[in-house]
Amino acid sequence: xxxxxxxxxxxxxxxxxxxxxxxxxxxxxxxxxxxxxxxxxxxxxxxxxxxxxxxxxxxxxxxxxxxxxxxxxxxxxxxxxxxxxxxxxxxxxxxxxx
Length: 98
Ligand SMILES: [Zn+2]
Known about the structure:
This protein has about 100 residues and is α+β, with helices and mostly antiparallel strands. The chain has helices at about 40-70, 75-95; strands at about 15-25, 25-35. The protein has one domain (about 1-75). A two-stranded antiparallel ribbon has the order 1-2. The protein binds zinc ion (ZN). Zinc ion binds near residues 9 and 10.
């Protein structure tokens, strides 16, 4: 059974824009794609999800980069990097919030 979901932005019940079936191995899988009934809102949601995805991906890349950088550094040097980064982020966060 497919449960209707709500739009994350406006809360309207999302409508199914696309339903298709694919054979996966020996079983048939039905896929559905749902969108907001408001096309303008749907565009915004897509943008929001894309941004969120980009932020998450960037965070992962940053984390890997930091881990590589920190390898071999002393604990004190590591702490200084973390503090500097936190300060940088809080400034950027304030800029974004405005
Ligand atoms: Zn919506």
